[in-house]
Design brief:
By secondary structure, the protein is α/β, with parallel strands linked by helices. The protein has nine helices and ten strands.
Length: about 240
């Protein structure tokens, strides 16, 4: 389980997170939404251990990740896969080599076993036969898929998604939603999805938490989130509908 307990973070004199508490049970998908600057990415960085809170704790499987030694933090991160907003592929490496990189750097697998693993993960994201292509030769949606294949190539227990549908058209966005849901079911992982896209939130989330002015103002099922009468939540939902019409 992942838990943020009374996490506060201040940057440049402004409270980005203000006493935030959030529990994400093992095997569930938590979606974190909110307007730009609400603290979504900062929350993700705390969970990864790239940032430490000014006060409060971040626990991953009961370990406080900002209090552990560097080697133990690396071990915790080894059980996480991250899909970055851009896909974050290395431009001078093929799709195959991008996906193989974590295996080559972090495991003792031989090249034959690595090749089998990469082909298996390419098939899981419906990118069979694209391994020899360069990132510049594939679409934005395929870059996201390749980034996801790399994120899952070491069989992580936790997958973190940073704006997974950003920059994609509605059709591609919904295909990425489907892929996220499939990964959660097939790999039985715990997923955290940071997004501004409510369609994604509704499609993949077991629960949706909304950050507003540094605090979580609602943590609910997709149905209850959509029907919530809080004026801030309603305004956010209505803005999404207007943007899509």
């Amino acid at each position: 389980m992942i838990e943020l307990s009374n996490v506060t973070c201040e940057l440049a004199g402004k409270k980005i997170l203000d006493n935030v508490s959030l529990k994400i049970p093992e095997g569930q998908t938590m979606v974190i939404v909110g307007s730009s600057g609400a603290g979504k990415s900062v929350t993700l960085k705390h969970i990864i251990g790239l940032m430490a809170p000014d006060s409060g704790k971040v626990l991953v499987n009961d370990k406080c990740i900002h209090d552990v030694k560097a080697r133990e933090l690396e071990n915790i991160r080894n059980h996480m896969g991250i899909l970055f907003q851009s896909g974050a592929l290395i431009n001078w490496m093929s799709i195959f080599d991008n996906i193989a990189l974590p295996l080559r750097e972090k495991t003792d697998l031989d090249e034959s076993s690595i090749a089998d693993k990469v082909r298996e993960r390419l098939a899981m994201v419906d990118m069979q036969g694209t391994g020899e292509k360069m990132p510049s030769e594939v679409s934005g949606g395929m870059k996201k898929r390749a980034g996801l294949a790399r994120a899952i190539v070491r069989d992580p227990a936790i997958i973190l998604y940073d704006e997974p549908t950003s920059g994609l058209d509605p059709v591609l966005s919904r295909s990425i939603d489907t892929l996220i849901a499939e990964m959660q079911k097939r790999l039985n992982v715990t997923s955290i999805v940071v997004t501004h896209d409510l369609n994604t939130a509704y499609n993949v989330g077991d629960r949706i938490a909304m950050l507003h002015e540094g605090q979580i103002i609602i943590n609910a099922t997709p149905k209850d989130f959509a029907e919530n009468k809080d004026p801030v939540v309603q305004k956010f939902v209505e803005a999404q509908h207007l943007a899509q019409t």
